[in-house]
Amino acid sequence: MPIILLIHGPNLNKLGERAAAHYGVLTLADLETKVTEDAKRFSLEIKSFQSNHEGALIDFIQAESKSAVGIIINPGALTHYSYSLHDALVDAGLPTVEVHLSDIKSREEWRQISVTAPACIGQISGKGVAGYADALKLLAERLAVD
Ligand code: DQA
Asked: Is the CB of 24 inside a 6 Å radius of any atom of ligand 1?
């Protein structure tokens, strides 16, 4: 099955312990299980990766993008300042959807800016875990027309 890279940035390994009002109660393992199940409906396979380190995320994208057809990424706080992650996503040349569990547009001013979104075909924010299902749908639609 075609592979979608599901990438999580810093602190997302702590889901389930982080502020539930912003990030919900599911753990990262719960989230990955759910997205993996949802992906099967689109005949897509999920390959997940989480790191607290910007370089490790870039290494993963560089190593895996050739064998994948799309990316779903929640870059965590790197969203707001990582130009190198932006560039890695552009270089990967894959349709990419950025997902945020919380609504970044209604939070602190610095959080409302995404430097990675311009490398993406869409950004989904504030829908919790459901945002990942929307991202899958968006990618599946995009892949169907390509
Ligand atoms: C987040 C939003 C970011 O601002 C924050 O730094 C995160 C999670 C979200 O999913 O809502 O770590 O990407």
From this structure: no
